[in-house]
Specification:
- By secondary structure, this protein is an alpha/beta fold.
- The chain has one domain: Metallo-dependent phosphatases (Purple Acid Phosphatase, chain A, domain 2).
- Helices cover about 30% and strands about 15% of the residues.
- The chain contains eight helices and twelve strands.
- The strands form three sheets. Strands 3-2-1-11-12 form a five-stranded mixed beta sheet, covered by helices on one side.
- The longest helix is centred in the middle third of the chain and has 17 residues.
Length: about 290
């Protein structure tokens, strides 16, 4: 059995089909690990969601920020609709309810027993081990499934911007969600800069919103991060592109922006396997 990890699909169903053909994917042999952001911004969000759900147990999926945004709209957060959303085909589909229920049941982090690899959408703050990240993700999942409407009413926002074990309630849940689905850069102290986009900084000082000149780094480059012993597979950062360094594999290669949809075989020497995308959106400098 091969385990293929696949980057952000974002509604690019044709490219996903082409990638599965390139991989010679076999349902009786292979498993597909999706880093999240199955939908939005691309032209075929509904087809993408149907295709991945139909894979059944062959697909391991973690939620990305765009997947959560779709669920938020479905559960009443209409005021959060964005001009670039391409989610109406799902929200109007005759099978929307089973599709959304399936998506709601996906985790925010996944680690297969005995394998060790951790699958997330975006990042971890330096203070979290892989085991702590999984436990925190489960806190969010329990709250989300207990009351989706209440959860999404409080999900949006950039504060708090620093982790503390003492965080509780809405602030605790929001920080966990933001880290696992939106994080790109942070400081060694665990302060996150969620609005930082574009190419990765190289220990820049005095970034906007960083009083005291704390250095911002890609989350996986922070020296001594507690999750350093675990191989982590993630997406979310199209301007970063494919990376295989510092014990992580980054797979968002900007398919929807005219880049490529990329996979790697997690059980062989890592090499990217990609199919190109014609580009359905103009890059805005932010990535996913």
């Amino acid at each position: 059995m091969a385990r293929y990890a696949i980057g952000d699909v974002q509604g690019c169903a044709a490219e996903l089909r082409a990638l599965l053909a390139t991989l010679e994917f076999s349902a009786d042999r292979d498993q597909l690990w999706f880093v999240g952001d199955l939908v939005n911004r691309g032209p075929e969000s509904l087809a993408s969601l149907r295709l991945i759900r139909a894979l059944g147990d062959n697909a391991v999926v973690v939620l990305g920020n765009h997947d959560l945004h779709l669920l938020a709209l479905a559960y009443g957060a209409e005021l959060r609709r964005k001009p670039g959303d391409t989610l109406d085909d799902i929200l109007r589909a005759p099978d929307r309810d089973p599709l959304l229920q399936w998506l709601l049941e996906r985790p925010l982090a996944y680690q297969e027993a005995g394998r060790g690899d951790l699958l997330i959408h975006a990042g971890l703050v330096p203070q979290w081990t892989a085991a702590e990240a999984l436990a925190l993700a489960q806190e969010v999942q329990a709250a989300l499934r207990r009351s989706p409407e209440g959860f999404f009413a409080d999900m949006y926002g950039d504060k708090p911007d620093r982790w503390s074990d003492a965080l509780a309630g809405t602030e605790r849940l929001r920080f966990i969600v933001n880290t696992l689905t939106r994080l790109r850069v942070c400081t060694a102290a665990g302060r996150v800069a969620l609005k930082a986009k574009g190419p990765p900084p190289r220990a820049r000082k005095g970034h906007a919103g960083r009083p005291g000149g704390e250095a911002l780094l890609p989350w996986f480059e922070v020296p001594g991060r507690a999750s350093g012993a675990t191989r982590i597979i993630f997406g979310h950062w199209s301007t970063l592109g494919y990376v295989n360094t510092h014990g992580v594999i980054g797979l968002d290669t900007g398919c929807v922006w005219g880049g490529a949809l990329t996979a790697v075989n997690l059980d062989e020497p890592i090499r990217p396997i990609s199919v190109s995308c014609p580009g359905y959106r103009q890059p805005d400098g932010g990535g996913s």
